Amino acid sequence: MSRAARLLGLMQALRRRRRAVAAADLAAELGVSLRTIYRDIVTLVAEGAPIEGAAGLGYRLREGFFLPPLMLTEDEADAVLLGLRLVAQRVDAELALAADEAFAKIAAILPPAVEDAAAASALIAGSPAGAGAPPHLAALREAMRGEHKVRLRYVDATGKGSERVVWPIAIGFFIAAEVLAAWCELRGDFRHFRLDRIAAATSLPDRLPKRRRVLLAEWRAQSNLDD
Q: What is the pTM of this model?
């Protein structure tokens, strides 16, 4: 492993963690000596990397720091760019534009060889029949971002309609449908709602009684998604 690749690997290892990590753990992950980790930390700090900590206490990146993308392999470029193409086909106009802009930014920083390979990629993002932005996605995303309750008019598989006030948590994108996970006040439990069966979605001024990330953790635990 080159020194540049090792330093990048060390920054990536720190970026993946929210808490301080011991130098010994970093050394084991990167396959280098403890002395090398200490030396590389000093080098990175000297170059301006906002690393906090000390030998024996562990190291972490200061909150708010984002490592700019420095390099991508051809496989990584294929994966990222294909993912952005797929996203742009299944979301609302605002998010599709964000995907297109992210695509352009990533393509602009690729090394020439990888950029050429990405431009000639054999991976094509086709749009399935009937695919497109699901109804009410933009409104639901905005409500989740602001942590507001939502009033839904929902039609189930039998055609029966109901009105619910829900606490939106997450939206899952599956092959057959997009599904909203939410706490339903009517049922007093977590429920799932297909976006194509939502007749109306209105964001309410009421804030969620709990932070959305707390609700998300509770939903994941109840759904056994953390196993």
A: 0.60
